[in-house]
Amino acid sequence: MIDWLPALVRTLAAGDSAVLLTIVHTVGSTPREAGTTMLVTPGDKLGSVGGGQLEWLATSAADALLEVGGPPRLLRFALGPTMGQACGGIVWLAAERIDTATQPEWQVRASAVEAGMGLRRRLSDTDGASGWTLSDPRLAGSGPDFAHLTTHGEHWCFSQQLGGDPFPVYVFGAGHVGSAVVRALTPLGTQITWVDGRAELFEAAGPQADNVRPLVTDQPTTQIATAPPGAYLLVMTHSHALDLELCEAACLREDFAFLGLIGSESKREAISRQLIHRGLHPERLDDLTCPIGIPGIEGKHPAAIAASVAAQILQVRETRMAIGHATHPGPDVPPLSSLPRPQ
């Protein structure tokens, strides 16, 4: 999810320019990784490049670009004692002004991203602005987000893939725990399909973020069948019988990223016996996580369960992404001596 994109389109449509602050490279310990982007608009900002003095200086540079304009700038920050930060690493950050005249182009990009497309970005030391192109996430090389800085002599080029990895999460159940889980997962880059047959629960929950799609249906197993490969499935309905149906439908697939069922060890045993009795091969149950949540958190409050579940899903996701990056490594990291000087 490109969380700053809708805000950028709204800002440009309102007649204001904005600045994208993007970390293009890091060395050593830093608070955020390459590819992290913060949007700075007149009087507001969305996201964070790491907080503290780093973010204050970066935001000040963005405010200057908003006031006087100019081409993209490359900034370098050593996060040591002179900056009042103890990370010890180094951050290279690009600051680029986006002018109101480009609003129609950004509207087209935003609509395409909402329809499932990704964005590719290229910015070099000789460019007056980034080049942006749409990418199809179904094609090779257009998958999970990446951000790479390459150098050649005194010249540099930053390339970035955004979107194309939608992080689909299906939450079955809109009770207290399901609602808490949706709230915990909403700001984490997820695309949430929230499924329940009780419309009044969604009405009570109120308006949802752009990345949450409440769905009222009396046939929730259909959503299991149509979920994209790599989806994260969380089963936490009010009915044991419905939980059983959803788990059976999920276990008939072998391409989901995670299947979690709320409940105890005894519930897992009961569900397992019933699924095996229905003909499911016992090995398929190895992919069922129940109880859900990271070990060591025993609290039963919905918010505590939600925090534990969100952390577990992030662990699974980052493990899968690390495996994917190891299988398809990016360009070599440039040596420190060749990295560009700040402008």
UniProtKB/TrEMBL annotation:
Signal peptide: none annotated. InterPro entries: MoCofactor_Util/Proc, Xanthine_DH_XdhC, XdhC_CoxI, XdhC_Rossmann_dom. Pfam families: XdhC_C, XdhC_CoxI. It comes from the Bacteria. Residues 169-313 form the XdhC Rossmann domain. Residues 12-77 form the XdhC- CoxI domain. PANTHER family: ALDEHYDE OXIDOREDUCTASE MOLYBDENUM COFACTOR ASSEMBLY PROTEIN (PTHR30388), XANTHINE DEHYDROGENASE SUBUNIT A-RELATED (PTHR30388:SF6). This is Xanthine dehydrogenase accessory protein XdhC. It comes from Zoogloea oryzae.
